[in-house]
């Protein structure tokens, strides 16, 4: 299982990929899907409490 730092790195990579795709597409539906996916990725990345939080 990846550490929290590795997991955050994966999420940041996904955000970068979405940004590159967004830069080259003009398809409005694709841009809506990209925005939708970005929102979920950002929620995971900035969730509180973090994944390592012990209850």
Describe the structure.
The protein is mostly helical and 55 residues long. Helix 1 runs antiparallel to helix 2. The radius of gyration is 13 Å and the shape is elongated. The mean pLDDT is 89.
Give a brief description.
With 55 residues, the protein is an all-alpha fold. The chain has two helices and no strands.
Q: Can you lay out the helices and strands and say which pair or pack?
A:
Layout: H1 4-24, H2 28-45
Helix pairs in contact: 1-2
Low-pLDDT windows of residues:
none
| Rg calc | 13 Å
Structural class: mainly alpha
- What does the largest sheet look like? none
Oligomeric state, counting identical vs distinct chains: single chain
Q: How many H/I helices?
A: 2
User: How many angstroms separate the termini?
Assistant: 19 Å
Our estimate of the beta-strand percent is: under 5%
Query: How many E strands?
Result: 0
Helix content: over 70%
User: Quick check: average pLDDT?
Assistant: 89
SSE topology string:
HH
- The rough form would be described as elongated
